[in-house]
Amino acid sequence: MNGRRTASVCPVCLRRVPAKRVRRGGAWVLEKTCPEHGDFSAVVWRGSEDIDSWTGALPEYGAEEGLRCPEGCGLCDRHLRKSCCVLLEVTGRCNLRCRFCFADGGSGGDPDGELLRARIDDIVKKAGAPLLQLSGGEPTLRDDLPELAAHAKRAGCSFVQVNTNGLRLAADPGYVRALAEAGTDIVFLQFDGVRDDIYETLRGRPLLRVKEAAIEACAKNGIGVTLVPTLVPGVNTDQIGALVRYAAAHTPAVRGVHFQPVSWFGRVPSPPKDKDRYTLGELIDALVEQTGGAITRESLIPSACDHPLCGLHGEYIALPGGRLEPLTKRGEAAESCCGARDSAERNRNYIGKRWSGAGDACCCDDADPHSLDGFLLWKRAHGFTVSAMAFQDAGNLDVERLRRCSLHVCRDGRLLPFCAAYLTGYAP
Amino acid sequence: MAEREMLCGKCGCPLEPRRVDFEYLGHVFFADAPRCPKCGEVYLSEELVRGRVAEVEMELENK
Description:
The complex is a heterodimer. By secondary structure, chain A is α/β, with parallel strands linked by helices. Chain A contains 13 helices and 17 strands. In chain A, the strands form two sheets. In chain A, strands 5, 6, 7, 8, 9, 10, 11, 12, 13, 14, 15, 16 and 17 form a 13-stranded mixed sheet that branches. In chain A, strands 1-2-3-4 form a four-stranded antiparallel sheet. In chain A, helix 2 packs parallel to helix 3, helix 3 (145-155) packs parallel to helix 5 and helix 8 crosses helix 9. The longest helix of chain A has 15 residues, at 113-127. Chain B is an alpha+beta fold. Chain B has a two-stranded antiparallel sheet with strand order 1-2.
């Protein structure tokens, strides 16, 4: 078989099928055949970045014998990564009806608080001291979310993050204060662009002012905000540079941008074509081009913990005049994090520290960022990260990538790789 | 108690405060440190190394 061997699923019936990654017309696609539903292909990489240089040499561990991914997930002894972050769904309800939503929120009830506290204790037992993501649905619809955050900190979670659309944070200052007092470190704020028409298209209503009010409320209470855009071709992929500039201009309240190219699970309008997908390769090109080179290609580093096709990150200081000082450099990153001893802890401490509130970052305009003292002042007040995670759906799921997943979802007491937890089939 | 003058171990010259450049992971930083005007030897105090230099290193460590 030509191409790189791995395994995937039939996007209709979700049965496990052999797959291969091959080059077609300047792009890399995942091809597979279901004996019942026929041939399928989905683009996994486009752009000027060479995929082999980006991933480095990796074994074909998606094609190994005896694997049961994804139907056999929770984590088994064939899974290659520990839990860096664990996501816990605290409600099925939502106050938006978005065009795209991995969690397919909008209905369903709330699990009992007692049950969730027991789940958190169990997560800590299984995953050590994870970065815990309180998610939904829309988690801020729960009045007891601050109590859950406080319980998570008491139970030993290193960092507590709330994944939110920001509506309640913008409208309810007492609630934000309670979340902060409970020890919430990070708000992952759905933030798709700097224009209202983008929110109207993706979220059904103009929300930019609401997002800005949420950021202000978090800043006032010392909770770090990371902007999380869902990138949809034809809707907001022209916003990538603008989002980086917005984040840089709003440090230290905003601690980073975490891009999520759209994935086609949960509530999606129709099965995707390749033109509907956006790969990390394209994101790398766009980050460089749309920032006029302020984000340098060499500052963007493939994930060493998750699979290189799943994640990237870069770290910067926002200097006056829109200049960015890159702090990361490809080739100088530490070796694989989760493969090493205490690596899950190392990874979560890295992202947790950078996404959490900046504390008492004071003004530093007079300090030279290249002096030891000035660097520390600038980094604390105006350091921010650019990162991305490309989730997989039934069309492009690659077991090689799935086996390296370190973002796990708690479901009925089991820990599942994120893309196995949210996997949904398309209508034939 | 007044600070004692520091002398270069090689040349015996009094060290003078000078700007010193450091390189770490491709980044160059500077700080003031006592330096021998003759041979260029620099004295890095434990306070500097365990303090600010270590802090900068931690900020630059990758995951």
